[in-house]
Amino acid sequence: MTILSKLSLNAKSGILVAVTALVVAYVRTFLQYDSYGWESIGAFLLSWFVHYLGVWLFIAISGAFVSRFAPVFLGKDLPREELSPNELLVYISLVVLVAAIVMFVLAHWPASGIYSE
């Protein structure tokens, strides 16, 4: 039995958001400053905290948008169950995490051709 299986759903969601914020902060630092790290522990913690708040804000806005407009796009007469706030949090966090990882991979992807010729 792993440690994560013993945690509650809220704790797992919180860890997922914290890891997502860490990955987003790392990728943004790399893309903006072309650097693989921070200058100090304080800069790291501040960057992580700011991105943590940003991820939460994005989750709140996206969750409200998805909850409000999903019936419009899926059809009002379709039977569907409502997503719980924890499910929205997990789905949106995973989308943000995957998007950050894809951006990092694409930033390291070699060019497909030579454009100077």
UniProtKB/TrEMBL annotation:
<keyword id="KW-1133">Transmembrane helix</keyword>
<feature type="transmembrane region" description="Helical">
    <location>
        <begin position="12"/>
        <end position="31"/>
    </location>
</feature>
<protein>
    <submittedName>
        <fullName>Uncharacterized protein</fullName>
    </submittedName>
</protein>
<feature type="transmembrane region" description="Helical">
    <location>
        <begin position="43"/>
        <end position="67"/>
    </location>
</feature>
<keyword id="KW-0472">Membrane</keyword>
<keyword id="KW-0812">Transmembrane</keyword>
<feature type="transmembrane region" description="Helical">
    <location>
        <begin position="88"/>
        <end position="109"/>
    </location>
</feature>
